[in-house]
Amino acid sequence: MARYSFRLPDIGEGIAEAEIVAWHVKIGERVEEDAQLADMMTDKATVEMESPVSGIVVELAGEVGDLIPIGSTLAVIETDGDGDVEAPPADTPVEQEIVAETPGAEEISVAEVAASAPVAVPAPTPAPAPASAAVTAPDQSRAVLASPAVRARAKDLGVDLGQVQAEGDRIRHADLDAFLRYSGGQGYHAPGASRARADEPIKVIGMRRKIAENMAASKRAIPHFTYVEEMDVTALEEMRADLNANRGGRPKLTMLPFLIVAICRTIPQFPMINARYDDEGGVVTRYGAVHLGMATQTDAGLMVPVIRDAQDKNVWQLASEITRLAEAARTGKAKVEELTGGTLTVTSLGPLGGIATTPVINRPEVAIIGPNKIVERPVFDGDDIRRAKLMNLSISCDHRVVDGWDAASYVQALKKLIETPVLLFAD
User: Fold this and answer.
1) Cβ distance 100 to 300 under 8 Å?
2) Catalytic annotation present for 403
3) What pLDDT sits at residue 13?
4) Known catalytic residue: 24?
5) CB count in 10 Å sphere of residue 154
6) In this structure, are residues 411 and 229 in contact, taking their beta carbons and an 8 Å threshold?
7) Given this model, what pLDDT does residue 193 score?
């Protein structure tokens, strides 16, 4: 028998290590050539590792959540033949299917792959109660003495007072409390009440860990500030309804495509918003094109697919791209290039948007924009009162790069376009 040492290959982008997010084999199991060994996560993607040989798995490098250096042994497989066999050099690029992508982002609306689902750890066995706390079993033959209030409470709790030990000549509330406390309440449940679930420790791995790391790095490194403004979207909503009614075979329009058009039309006046900050190099790059990140919530966590050259697209094209990228993110089919290279991010919780949000910047970008939910309220229009649809819009900025005046001025420019939507389509 021969042993084949499968070393973790270079899976791109010059990374030094990758995280084990799932094993598809166990020690002692047989694996066939090209069958899945493990899922490994880098900063950008989860990559499937396939076995180059058939045989029995005799060694595995670590557990789910462990970081494995590139070039180190990931698995050892016992094969037919003589002499041990080494895997190809670690710097040989791997050609594997990307099954999911990590966010670059923010709080991150918008994925943890099935392989990195939470791992439940058995709860520890509770320690026995101290001997001094033990309750002596009562004499079942004795008469139960208790006040009507105690009897009513015991009935509500489903407690048989014959099981309760009294400190004195009758059962009091304190005796009932002691019984419930030292028995753990087992077998007794107040009608309509909810039982406490067992504690469930969850190991933070895979995409959830990447999200945590990205969020911590963003808040640690970037001095955030958030500016919120109210906008009257009544006219825009009327325009949107008219366009949808006559859209034909084109996609249905939401608020987001209109907001993206407004963002792109105002960026030339405020180039500091569409930028990335290189902390180490001390360089801010202001981008001419708007590569707009779209925070998308998925079953696997928050992902941020990027709409390339958003400034060149109309509302119908943006609607199609939004739908396509969101679906790719949610199904784990988004490509690496569709999840990287953003210059500005929009994050929306839709109808759950709340009154205002303070979104976390998608580092190394310097700003993130968050529309909130639309509400109807009466507003003054001169001496008249009319019904209006109002929406708050939040922007969080990196105060090292963007001043408060700049952020406020930018949002006011957005407000003008949003509240006079015909300007969105004017040359």
Assistant:
1) yes
2) yes
3) 59
4) no
5) 22
6) yes
7) 55
Token pair for 7: 């070393």
Residues near 202 by beta carbon (within 8 Å), at least 6 away in sequence? 118, 119, 120, 121
Strand partners, 388: 377
Burial class of residue 246 (count of CB atoms within 10 Å of its CB; 0-12, 13-18, 19+):
exposed
DSSP 197-221: PPP--B---HHHHHHHHHHHHHHHH
Per the listing, tokens 């004499």 go with 139
Q: How far apart are CA 58 and CA 67, in angstroms?
A: 20
Q: Cα(240)–Cα(421) distance, rounded to whole angstroms?
A: 10
pLDDT higher than 80, residue 427: no
Write down the H helix ranges in 246-366: 255-266, 315-330
Sheet with 67-69, strands from edge to edge, namely: 67-69, 17-23, 36-41, 45-50, 98-101
Band of residue 353 on the pLDDT scale cut at 50, 70, 90: confident
Q: Exactly one of 398, 403, 406, 427 is catalytic; which is it? A: 403
- Both tokens of 38, joined, read 């493990």
Least confident of 47-56, 78-87, 207-216: 78-87
Annotated catalytic residue within 175, 399, 406, 427: 399
The yes-or-no verdict on residue 322 having pLDDT over 60 is yes
Taking the C-alpha atoms of residue 108 and residue 225, their distance in angstroms, rounded to an integer, is 17
SS3 content of the chain, % helix, strand, coil (to 5): 30, 25, 45
Write down the residue that tokens 């004795």 correspond to: 142
Cβ–Cβ under 8 Å, residues 215 and 121: no
pLDDT value at residue 162: 85
Please, what is the average pLDDT of the chain? 83
Contacts of 321 (CB under 8 A, 6+ apart): 307, 313
Q: Which H helix or E strand runs over 78?
A: strand 73-79
Residue whose structure tokens are 């001419």: 288
